[in-house]
Fold this sequence. Notes:
Blueprint: H1 2-11, H2 15-40, H3 46-52, H4 78-91, H5 93-132, H6 140-156, H7 159-169, H8 178-187, H9 189-211, H10 216-219, H11 228-271, H12 281-289, H13 303-341
Helix pairs in contact: 1-11, 2-5, 2-7, 2-11, 5-6, 5-7, 6-13, 7-11, 8-9, 9-11, 9-13
Amino acid sequence: xxxxxxxxxxxxxxILGALMALGWTARSMQREGHKVWARGSGLKxxxxxxxxxxxxxxxxxxPTWLRAPAQEPEAPTGKTGRARAWLRxxxxxxxxxxxxxxxxxxxxxxxxxxxxxxxxxxxxDGWNNxxxxxxxxxxxxxxxxxxxxxxxxxxxxxxxxxxxxxxxSGDWRRFYDFRLIRKLVRRAWLSSATLAxxxxxxxxxxxxxxxxxxxxxxxNAHLPSYTEPQRIHLLNQYFFFTAAVFFPIFVSLHLRAAxxxxxxxxxxxxxxxxxxxxxxxxxxxxxxxxxxxxxxxxEDPPAWKRAARWFATRTGQxxxxxxxxxxxxxxxxxxxxxxxxxxxxxxxxxxHPVILLPLHHSLP
Length: 364
């Protein structure tokens, strides 16, 4: 665990490393989802499940950062063939992580980046208007921000489950299964609400970390006399050590999303709300292997229980929608607060590191 986190702390300091971290996290989400399905089949103990179902063994351990996933051994011929086999075996995970991370980043950016780009422009326009006293244009910045925030929140109703679906299926196109994901989110309204609440809560320490450099002169009276290379060195150390908080939070939120998605998909498949044709090939193969596609007979409760359940479900869904909306509003609201304390002109709103690219290094 310590070694994985240490490599993650190094990775999130650069763009390429952050792409690798995103790809590595996607493989970790696969493992988490398969553990949920194994428990759903009655195999509560993970080592027991690995012994009983050989198809689960590729996810027996946490993914490595450099090595490719275990595959059938090849029989290389010649020095060149053996060299290629050695590279695939020991460094094959690098291109896979970069590819998976780039696909995840692109898909998420398609939905989130338009809203964050509008926020970036609105923030710039708002401050520019304040300094230049353009009273007739005062409404432009706030109005664009309102539309941008609403667009961001609308996208985040879809993004966490969509990222989990892409990770578990191994197919980037599954990210855009809007109808299926909307059905799962509505069925798993409590999981969706708790997931959004976890994002809102765990983003608080990250907002503090991101804003804290603006108070460095109060902590260190000698800082104004530092040269620029010394200040950059100080910030590099700061971002590296605070990544010990950022990286576990980033991974834990994505693993929580994978668990919620896997449980919702299993429930929907067994109840008949989702057909086998809606499943990705890899999802169908694993769930069929575990015997999870056998439908469960629905219960027939009394009429008063059906009415109470219907009312509670409708009320619960409405409350969950409001709660999810408020939680995602708190997430993006923290970005506005953080930028007020310390403005990042290039990446302030464009990249939320917990949602888009996990880049935990931004020189103000």
